Amino acid sequence: QVQLVESGGGLVQPGGSLKLSCAASGDSLDRYEVGWSRRIPGKERELIATLTTFHFEHYAQVAKGRATISRDNAKNMVFLQMNNLGPEDSAIYYCHARIVGTSVSYWGQGTQVTVSS
Questions:
Q1: DSSP per-residue string spanning the chain
Q2: 38-56 pLDDT, tens per residue?
Q3: Distance CA 42, CA 21 (A)
């Protein structure tokens, strides 16, 4: 099974940007659909973006126009670039991967993003 470790979170000023990274080990991401979700305190976890093995990108409405998901299969990594961040984007961001054709998913531990001046 694949293990996922996120990094790149931290404190960001409103209007700023960040790039989250997700490093995978234990298996190759070649056969996984990957994605990012987040959990805002007091709310349910919400999907941000997904990226298929064929590089088809899907974005939730909250992320459209200001987020980019990407993957580097050679490095076994997934990335999320988000721009124009606001306090409402403060959350724990999780990387996840699903084996294509199955419901088997794996999740990282998450990385905290705080948007504040």
A1: --EEEEE--EEE-TT--EEEEEEEESS-GGGEEEEEEEE-TTS--EEEEEE-TT--EEE-TTTTTTEEEEEETTTTEEEEEE-S--GGG-EEEEEEEEETTS--EEE---EEEEE--
A2: 999 899 999 999 999 999 9
A3: 25
Mean pLDDT of 26-40: 95
**Residues 41, 45, 48, 49: what is their CA dihedral angle, to the nearest 10 degrees?**
150
Phi (first) and psi of residue 39, to 5 degrees: -125, 115
CA angle 74, 80, 84 (to 5 degrees): 150
- pLDDT for the residue 33: 97
Structure token pair of residue 113: 């993003």
pLDDT level of residue 5 (50, 70, 90 thresholds): very high
